[in-house]
Amino acid sequence: MNEESTVKAYSLKVPKELGEKAIRLAASLDLLSRSLKIRSDNGCLYVPLTRSPLPNHAEKIREALPRFDVLVQGFPTRIRPSRAAFEAVGDRLPPHLLASFPRSIDLVGDTAVVEVPLELEEHKELVGEAILEAHKQARTVLAKSSAIGGVCRVRDYEVIAGSQKTETVHKEHGCRYNLDLRKVYFSPRLSYEHSRVASQVEENETIIDMFAGVGPFSVLIAKTHVNVKVYAIDVNPDAVRYLERNIAVNGVVEKVVPILGDARDVVCERLRGTADRVIMNLPEKASEYLDSACQAVKPEGGVIHYYEFAEGANPLETAKDRLVKAFRGANRKAETFLSARTVREVAPYKWQVALDARIS
User: Fold this and answer.
1) Cα separation of 353 and 311, whole Å?
2) What is 85-165's CATH topology?
3) Which of 276, 281, 304 is nearest to 291 (CA)?
4) How many helices (DSSP H) and strands (DSSP E) are in the chain?
5) Potential cystine with 146: which of 156, 238, 310, 360 (Cβ 3.0-4.6 Å)?
6) Residue spans of alpha helices (H) in the chain
7) Per-residue b or e along 63-91, where b marks 16 or more CB atoms closer than 10 Å to that residue's CB
8) Closest by alpha carbon to 352, among 308, 302, 299?
9) What class is the 6-76 domain?
10) What is the pTM of this model?
11) Which residue from 317, 172, 315, 148 is spatially nearest to 236, judged by alpha carbons?
């Protein structure tokens, strides 16, 4: 049985009579999400979008649609026309093991990534073959064989089906990212975060992406804004090499500056007091770099996008308290929290959280 999940996304809300026009318009602006189902309710249609419309998009929407709203809504995902992987393997796997078949598969370019449970270890090649059968765009299936670790935030993988080639090109929000999961960290599950943060950036801002990886925040910001400067820092040499390629491929050479090094050292030596906005997507260790983030922000203040793994009954309040104390220790003040949300549960009672804080 193929289960339908719900995903939160930006949407274009219009009266039903304007629905067809709104869908065509969203598609022409490269905003239409084809992985989510269109919703209708009380005479209105909700058209799922891949990201928040930029100012130039909003202007074109206003010209074409007399009535509309942009909202964040929950949308059911589209069921793939091909058989789900666990259905494809149903007659080849012992019945008592079907319940253990992994339902969560990440697609990064033409690479499928899966976590194979211990009880399916001796059937992992069969699992991989079923995934290739169900996901026709996949050419390689990787099984996670270690946790994320080390300074470079990479994990070990085993090829369990398909090509041995692990380098791929992932497309997201109109951008192309060259990467190799064996060498760099990348998660397609953060697609909404990349879009959410980019949509908040204003023209003429200077942004520091402290843990840039292959550039999903930096490149998207530069691609969707006319006049910005983004300093993209990473300590992983492989990530920076791919970042440089992605900057060139996406045509943002003049806007993104790739920097190899530890973010703390780079900020201290080159970027003190330069940023209107700092992105801290390193949930394992971001709290250790809050003093550097405060140094990076301009004296008059700015915004910090902060990610961490928080535990307890109220993880958002726990993370907020940590930030307030860290800002105070760096002679900064949290003026307001613009946003506080749980991104995903990573373990029982442990969540990845995202906080946007404006500091003075």
Assistant:
1) 10
2) GMP Synthetase; Chain A, domain 3 (3.30.300)
3) 304
4) 10, 17
5) 156
6) 19-28, 55-64, 85-88, 124-134, 191-200, 218-223, 237-249, 263-266, 290-296, 315-329
7) eeeeebeeeebebeeeeeeeebbbbbbee
8) 308
9) alpha beta
10) 0.76
11) 148
Distance CA 211, CA 151 (A): 11
**pLDDT of 341 higher than 80:** yes
* Whole-number Å distance between alpha carbons of 218 and 72: 23
Dihedral angle over CA of 111, 116, 122, 123, nearest 10: -60
Q: Lowest-confidence range among 119-128, 131-140, 141-150, 310-319?
A: 310-319
CA-to-CA separations, 352 to 131, 227, 341, in angstroms, rounded: 27, 31, 9
327 vs 71: CA distance, rounded Å: 32
Closest of 210, 128, 126, 214 to residue 167, by C-alpha:
214
Res 116 pLDDT > 70: yes
pLDDT tens string 274-284 = 999 999 999 99
Q: In this structure, which CATH number among 3.10.20.30, 3.20.20.70, 3.40.50.150, 3.40.50.300 belongs to the domain 185-359?
A: 3.40.50.150
SS3 214: coil
- Provide the token pair at 331: 């002679």
Between the CA of residue 70 and those of 21, 55, 201, 316, what are the distances in Å? 15, 12, 17, 26
Sequence spans of domains, the chain: 6-76, 85-165, 185-359
Q: What is the pLDDT of the chain when averaged over all its residues?
A: 89
